[in-house]
Amino acid sequence: MATNRTFTMVKPDAVEKNYIGGILEKINGAGYRIVAMKYTRLSAEQAGKFYEVHSERPFYGELVEYMSSGPIVAAILEKDNAVADFRTLIGATDPAEAAEGTIRAAFAESKAKNAVHGSDSDENAAIEGNFFFSQVERP
Ligand code: UDP
Ligand code: MG
Question: Where does ligand 1 bind, in terms of residues with CB under 6 Å?
């Protein structure tokens, strides 16, 4: 069953550059309602757990270091076809390959420091949202 929610983070590079507002504007402009949101910072241990699925990949160590290097904004978003449409909205992992008008084309600096996270499945959207938000924090 498709759900209508996805999970996103504004990553440390984009927070550092004051892109939170610009990114949220694009997210709202695409029809997403913000269900839950928090500004926080991950420890290396927490970032390692969040990205555990990538633990065998060569970039895992750098990814954990980067994602714990500064504050992030985590949010649960709601809209029809939320997961797939959000992947289209953010664009390819590497901003050099991201389509014009996508969030990564506009705000990302590199394949690693790519401004935003977007869940890749309904199942992971639920797991990732639950990682950051308790039941009362995600009405
Ligand atoms: N990443 C990286 N180098 C790579 C691939 C990915 O540093 O070659 C980082 C990047 O920040 C990316 C994250 O690891 O967003 C997770 O990778 P994934 O393949 O899941 O990309 P995404 O789903 O974020 O587009
Ligand atoms: Mg991914």
Answer: 54, 59, 63, 93, 111-112, 114, 117, 120
